[in-house]
Amino acid sequence: MRATTLLSLGWLAALPLGAQQPYTGAEACAPCHEDHVRWVRGSVHENTALPSAKGQAVHGCETCHGPGAKHVENPSLDTIITFRREPAPVRSGQCLACHNTTSARLNFRRGDHHTAKVACDDCHGASQAFHRMRGVRDVMARAEPALCFGCHAEQRADFALPSRHPVRDGIMQCSSCHDQHGGFSLRQLRTRGTETVCSRCHEDKQGPFIFEHPAGRAGDCAACHRPHGSTNPKMLTRAQVRFQCLECHANTTARHDLSQPRYQHCTVCHSRIHGSNLSRLLFE
Is 187 within 8 Å of 178 (Cβ atoms)? Predict the structure, then answer.
């Protein structure tokens, strides 16, 4: 049975293959992998020591690809971690053996990407760029948002709509709102305590207000707004404001004759739609 098969479940993927065979040193890789050894020289990974090597001076190739003694004896794809054939948990586990010092990466295995079998190297790919890596941006397969759009086609279409967040313009990134490495919130949103992710930019809509709009109090901006993009102004889910309001406020008073234009623009009177400190009816 291949070692990678043994490591194909959850947290076991973070364990190196050092328990099955000894390390040989990066020098043993050069005769066959001359280009890769040349690329890695001077990179951030060249002298990175493997934390789980139990006192051994392990760095360079074997930090990521595992111990190479058996591979030197039998240069087969079955005797080394190649990052081409292993399942996603194994590939991510090799990265997380070192990249586990921040809460975001510690949460990777509870995130949607891990659940969908997306591994670290699916986003941080490109062999030559990875081996030459001098900084974080050097190893991205593509820049945001093109990288995210490769899988999230529906969101790509939303960001092409007339009313949208400025992601395609480079003012925002997908990671401005979503934590790509995992988290505890729905859709891996970057929330702050009880605050919504929207309040990171739209602080004036967050409050606190003495008289709050119920939707805002529930922390659900998406009740009225489409978060990625919409054909409607202000990214609303409805084309006209009155229809937006009627989704919740169906029982309007008799004086509000919606057939009359003067009553068809709710926010003309209820101008403080997100909350008010003066009026229970959100007048001002």
Answer: yes
